[in-house]
Structures are given as structure tokens and as C-alpha cells.
Design brief:
By secondary structure, the chain is mainly alpha-helical. It has six helices and no strands.
Length: 202
Amino acid sequence: MSDQKIEKLLQDADRTAGRPAPVRVDVSDIRRRAKRRQVVHIGGPIAAAAVLMVALSIWSGSLRTTQTTLEQERIASLESQVKELQAQTDAAMSLIQEVLEQERRQQRLDELEAELAGIPDPLEEMQKQVDKTAFILVYQADRLYLELHQTDSAVEAYHRVIRLFPENQWAQVARQRLEEIEKKKSNKTESKGDLKWKRQNV
């Protein structure tokens, strides 16, 4: 078989094989994408060469009886190259599968981390509920004192807030309200005493 025929056969095999389909994977991390792209660039040409070599070996098998010893040696060399390329292709495909599997695992980990980040902290939620409860009690006590003028009930409610939530900001508000009530009471007592003294001296 002449070199021109072999060259024509190789060109036909190239046209038939076409370019290898690119492996497409959605990657969030640039470093992993670059690594995978490198693996795909290595695996694609190897796979195309392997297909070409397999086609050559099939073609050479049908013409084996008519070939010379030199051509048989060339075919044997091509077959060994095909086997070598096949082994390299298998190794590249195995590496690609491993990279894709790692990518899937990493993507799942990222999804789980995102879900975990979306779950509110239970301690923060409890603190919010405590603050809300303390606020409601102070608000009710304020209504008793300012709107309904039930000072004794308001004082009890303020004391309840201080007793139940001593470290809360609303307990501090309750303490301030109690101080205001005590000041008003003492001012009223003083003014009543002054009035009594004036009456006695008049």
C-alpha cells in the first residue's frame, strides 16, 4: 500500500471523526474550572487520536493478506500506538470522571452551606422573643400608669419585668419608670406636708 493511500485514509478518518465534543461543566471556582479544562484539553485529542488509530487498525486488518512485510511491521507499530493511546484515553477519561465527581461533591457542599447559612440562630431567635415579651410587659405597665392611672398595678408590672428579665434593656426601662413614680410620690408627699404646715401657721 502506498503512502498516498495511507495519507488519504488518514484524512478521511479525520473528517469522519470530527472534533471531540467539549465536556461542559458549570464551575463556580475558577481554579477548579482551569484544572478541569486542562484535563479536557488533554483527553479530547487523545480520544480523537484513539478513534483514528482504531479505524486504521480495522482497515489494516482487512488488507493484511496483501501487504508486504514492511507494511505488516508498520501496522503492528500502529496497533501498539493505538493500544497506548487507548490506555492514555482511559486514564484521561478516568481523571475527567474523578474531577466531575469532585465538582459534584463540592457543589453539594456549597448548597448545604448556603442552606445552613439561611437557618436563623436559635439563641438569637430566643433573645428576640425575650426582648419582645419584656417590651410588651413594659408597654402594658406604661398604659396602666399613664393612660389608666392605675399606679399600683403599673408598679407591680414593672417589678415583674425586672424580676423575670433582670439583664434585659426593658428591665432598665422598668427601673427608670419606678424611679419616676417614686419621685412623683415623694414630691406629692412633700407638697402635702408644706400645705399642712402653711395651714397650721396661718
